[in-house]
Amino acid sequence: xxxxxxxxxxxxxxxxxxxxxxxxxxxxxxxxxxxxxxxxxxxxxxxxxxxxxxxxxxxxxxxxxxxxxxxxxxxxxxxxxxxxxxxxxxxxxxxxxxxxxxxxxxxxxxxxxxxxxxxxxxxxxxxxxxxxxxxxxxxxxxxxxxxxxxxxxxxxxxxxxxxxxxxxxxxxxxxxxxxxxxxxxxxxxxxxxxxxxxxxxxxxxxxxxxxxxxxxxxxxxxxxxxxxxxxxxxxxxxxxxxxxxxxxxxxxxxxxxxxx
Amino acid sequence: xxxxxxxxxxxxxxxxxxxxxxxxxxxxxxxxxxxxxxxxxxxxxxxxxxxxxxxxxxxxxxxxxxxxxxxxxxxxxxxxxxxxxxxxxxxxxxxxxxxxxxxxxxxxxxxxxxxxxxxxxxxxxxxxxxxxxxxxxxxxxxxxxxxxxxxxxxxxxxxxxxxxxxxxxxxxxxxxxxxxxxxxxxxxxxxxxxxxxxxxxxxxxxxxxxxxxx
Lengths: 260, 214
Hints:
The complex is a heterodimer of chains A (260) and B (214).
Chain A: H1 2-14, H2 18-39, H3 54-85, H4 88-92, H5 98-126, H6 137-165, H7 169-183, H8 197-202, H9 204-218, H10 223-254
Chain B: E1 10-21, E2 24-35, E3 39-43, H1 50-58, E4 65-70, E5 73-74, H2 78-83, E6 84-87, H3 100-112, H4 115-128, H5 132-136, H6 144-156, E7 162-166, H7 174-186, E8 191-195, H8 199-202, E9 207-210
Parallel strand pairs in B: 3-8, 3-9, 6-7, 7-8
Antiparallel strand pairs in B: 1-2, 1-4, 4-5
């Protein structure tokens, strides 16, 4: 698995602008939301999961949304790249398990996304006036880690979709958008229609956003969210591996591993 | 390793292997065995199913019917993949952004897990196959023949018991072809299954299976 993560790093580094542009893209998002929040300055801060204002709320949405998007969509995207570059069959012929392959393909991107998320939160704190005086950095780190793990399960299922249907990235983007919206990335979930409430209560992203906001803005109350994310990971990861192995087996039966 | 007076270990055992595509049987039914140290050539016209057989043995394609055993393990199992080195006919099986060496070390790490051991094994193979210059090139700058030499090196990583080669000399010059066969013969224990059109490759093998006649 470390070999796969190392290779991802080398490939990313070989495209000189990829890493700096990825980081810059997040800064742009942060700045856009900074000015949006200034436009609506003075709005009620109730129901913002402890965030003192809308920009503080949104900065967590941007930072964590990145981890969620990376953990879920990037595995599928990398799987598609392996198909297109012709390396997937060579990988499958190696003595590695399906679980190692799926996690290994996303490992670098997820770790990089977590580092970027932390950087954006630091920038929001140090340069854009977000108050983190009560932050629990331990809580922030643990919830971030748990969120990345829980979302990786969704990413592995999406990668299984790519193995079977080839072009399934759009489905991945839609899933990520839905999960981010229902989890409260850009606005509080209380403004969503009541009939969505049963879904909002169980989506893993809600625990992730709430947990990070509790850790950063209150310093307490994040452990329940981290526990919920751990529980979700413990159930969903083995299921995701089963689905991925099933898709791999189907591709071998169809003879479609070497095709795109 | 073959021991005189003792039956060599059976590495490949194929019983009733058949593969269908779109309701049409393109391979088999086929039976054969290859023991440790034996070299078997698969002959046949284009489309006769040579690559399909190699893929079934490598575990990247599932046979429709029949049974394949690799060193006592079902084809495609983790244990079977551990003893197989494979070079398939597909030209694009390396990451084009990385050097040949980085690609080889990556694949070696998948097998050996340890980075230093992987680097050492790759270095030894570069020496043996005279690949130093090619390995230093980005794969995107390599010709088909150069990539094919890298592919052989990848197949030989971590001392496989079974080597599956799909038209391995198709784009090689004479010197590279000679290096390939020297490397195979140096590994006396190695079972080899090679799909080829070339007569000079066939004469390096002990037996042939002509798919056109089956």
